[in-house]
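My hope is that you will study the record closing this message with an eye to the fold:
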Amino acid sequence: MTQSTRPIHLDLWRIRLPIGGWVSILHRLSGVLLVVAIPAGAIVLGHALSGPEGFAASAALLGHPLVRLVVVVLVWGLLHHLAAGVRYLLLDLGLGLERRSARRSAWLALGAGLIATALVLGVGVLA
């Protein structure tokens, strides 16, 4: 029997992920956030469409600072998920597979999600 040189325990806090790894983790996290937010969004929308009182209550809820922060995170999640998803589709097509291109596209996807979020917030969609 030979002794394995593989680590028995991985210390995940000491591992330095490349930017592509971070984009991948954030892509998965943003997808989970978006799926989890669907029922809450449907409930708030249904309540807002129930009548003037429901609309006023929904508007008051969405005006709360903590809820606004959640909405900002969800907007980022949607835009990051879109940008990273386009990156993965291009990678699946065989475009940008070289290390330098893959790293550049990861930074581009990360930046595009953040810039698009800033633009959406700057336009006043959530103001």
Notes: The radius of gyration is 20 Å.
